[in-house]
UniProtKB/TrEMBL annotation:
Name of the protein described by the UniProt record: Diguanylate cyclase
Domain EAL: 24-274
Source organism of the structure: Pararhizobium antarcticum
């Protein structure tokens, strides 16, 4: 009896797995088509200086809304493109669009772009990135690349080489989602980062629990000592913003300051911020 039930379960599971694989393949095909049709878009979320709330740059975030599948999160389709081996094609389209949009911003603003873990294992990534922004006409000193610890860990030598080549060209490197995953403090010392992005998990609890506050305080102190800039991610309300300012955190990002919006809305946002100045000739630009 149990044997029969067991077999039944295997049938159910294999059907589920088959359906899941079919779904992933449909998603893959739709995504490949969307890239070709230029339907994968990029949105921008402001990163601000917490001292005066001035905008210092924008993070580019991939957006895809399929006619049949609806909105698909980048947390789903970026890993899919990695698994199916076309992250380079996707990322190239995204970086090209992001770099072109950034050209219209005041020159002192940086563009922050997420690199996926597969890209950090591919030694041609540094040359590819520099050639894409070169063709777009974006100064490498205006580009920041966000990478995660997990991505660095996979093949540390290749990742280090990519990062070294990019930094030599003036690109800055941020460590994304810091505090989640396999955080190693030694990596902060040995790997060349310019900036640390404190994960939203700490920020969202900072008003409610003292331990998150202490952790952020310690991260800020450590980064000060290591000469790394700190960005707090996912700031959603004024109390979080005030707490982070009080802790001496230099930069912030989150819905409180602005949700990710498309390139056109980003220009409108900048127009309100730079109301009295000419676009492209803002202070320091
Ligand atoms: P991430 O790089 O850590 O990006 C931050 C995520 O937090 C974004 O989600 C952003 O929309 C969201 N967020 C920002 N502020 C707030 C807030 O105040 N509250 C809340 N609840 N969320 C906030 P999103 O856009 O869904 O992206 C998810 C992840 O997908 C990103 O995490 C990044 O790892 C990846 N991703 C997005 N675009 C790209 C891309 O172009 N290339 C690569 N390789 N990965 C990307
Ligand atoms: Mg990021
Ligand atoms: Mg992040
Ligand atoms: Mg994240």
């Amino acid at each position: 009896r149990s044997k029969r039930r067991g077999r039944g379960q295997i049938t159910v599971y294999s059907r589920e797995i088959a359906q899941e694989m079919k779904r992933a393949t449909q998603l893959e095909q739709a995504l490949r088509n969307a890239i070709i049709a230029d339907e994968v878009d990029v949105h921008f979320q402001p990163i601000v200086n917490l001292k005066d709330d001035s905008v210092v740059g924008f993070e580019a975030l991939a957006r895809w809304c399929d006619a049949d599948l609806g909105y698909v999160s980048p947390a789903v389709f970026v890993p899919l493109a990695e698994e199916r081996g076309f992250i380079d094609t996707l990322s190239e389209a995204l970086l090209r669009k992001a770099a072109e949009a950034a050209l219209a911003w005041p020159k002192e603003l940086f563009l922050s772009f997420n690199l996926s873990s597969a890209q950090l294992m591919d030694p041609s990534t540094s040359a590819n990135v520099l050639s894409i922004i070169g063709r777009a006409g974006l100064d490498p000193r205006r580009l920041e690349l966000e990478i995660t610890e997990t991505a660095v860990m996979t093949d540390e030598d290749v990742a280090q080489k990519i990062v070294t080549e990019l930094r030599a060209a003036g690109v800055r490197i941020s460590l994304d989602d810091f505090g989640t995953g396999q955080s190693s403090l030694g990596r902060l010392r040995d790997f060349s980062f310019d900036k640390v992005k404190v994960d939203r998990a700490f920020v969202s609890r900072i008003s409610h629990d003292r331990s998150s506050e202490h952790i952020v305080k310690a991260i800020v102190a450590m980064c000060d000592g290591l000469d790394l800039e700190v960005v707090a991610e996912g700031i959603e309300d004024v109390s979080e913003a005030l707490k982070l300012k009080a802790l001496g955190c230099g930069m912030g990002q989150g819905y409180f300051y602005g949700k990710p919006v498309d390139a056109v809305a980003t220009m409108r946002y900048l127009a309100t911020k730079y109301a009295t100045r000419e676009p492209g000739s803002a202070a320091g630009g």
